[in-house]
UniProtKB/TrEMBL annotation:
<feature type="coiled-coil region">
    <location>
        <begin position="9"/>
        <end position="83"/>
    </location>
</feature>
<keyword id="KW-0175">Coiled coil</keyword>
<protein>
    <recommendedName>
        <fullName>DUF2203 domain-containing protein</fullName>
    </recommendedName>
</protein>
Length: 120
């Protein structure tokens, strides 16, 4: 009987480790999304500033240089937006880790109650 219990504990421990790994992946993805959003805001601000400068009465050489800079920033902004779209948390990518966390959090609470009742 103790062999079966040991196997169950090993399985539970493996599932808990998997849930922890999934949670870390979700946290990492969230961090990447936050960084991407900050980058996007900074690039959008730079883009707006350059567009305002281009509208000013400047020599054509300086305007051409500003337009090149604006094109580079626009390309970077597009890359950041594509990266954000690919990393955004959708329910489908979040559903499995969420339910595993709920499931094993509940198991943890039950184990805590059982251990406390056995010890008390």
């Amino acid at each position: 009987m103790s062999v079966g219990k040991s196997s169950e504990w090993d399985e539970l421990e493996a599932q808990l480790q998997q849930a922890e790994q999934l949670l870390q992946e979700v946290k990492q993805r969230l961090s990447q999304v936050k960084t991407g959003q900050r980058d996007r805001q900074a690039l959008q601000q730079q883009q707006a500033d350059l567009q305002a400068e281009i509208k000013q009465d400047l020599p054509s050489e300086q305007k051409a240089q500003l337009k090149q800079e604006l094109d580079k920033i626009t390309e970077q902004l597009e890359l950041v937006e594509v990266d954000l779209e690919s990393r955004l948390l959708s329910w489908n990518s979040f559903r499995e880790p969420f339910w595993q966390i709920v499931r094993f959090g509940g198991v943890g609470v039950l184990l805590g109650v059982l251990l406390k009742s056995c010890a008390g």
